Amino acid sequence: MPGERSLAEEYGVALDTVRKATRILRERGLVQTLKSKGTFVAHPE
After folding, report:
1. φ, ψ for residue 27 (rounded to 5)?
2. CA separation (Å) from 34 to 11, 13, 42?
3. Where is the HTH gntR-type domain (predicted)?
4. Which run of H or E residues covers position 34?
5. Contact status, residue 25 vs residue 15, Cβ threshold 8 Å
């Protein structure tokens, strides 16, 4: 996925909104965030 700042700019929302959305996606197992690498779409189980 693009970086959080890029997503916030693209969709015209606050950075905190993007972070909350990413957290929800992570909790649902739809994305994985790897430190210093980024956020990636998770593989289906």
Report:
1. -60, -30
2. 23, 23, 11
3. 1-44
4. strand 31-34
5. no
Give the C-alpha separation, 13 to 5, whole Å: 10
Structural element, H or E, at residue 5: helix 4-11
pLDDT tens for the chain, 45 residues long, are: 999 999 999 999 999 999 999 999 999 999 999 999 999 999 877
Backbone torsions φ then ψ of 35, nearest 5 degrees:
-55, 135
Cβ–Cβ < 8 Å for 40, 34: yes
pTM of the model: 0.82
Domain ranges of the chain: 4-41
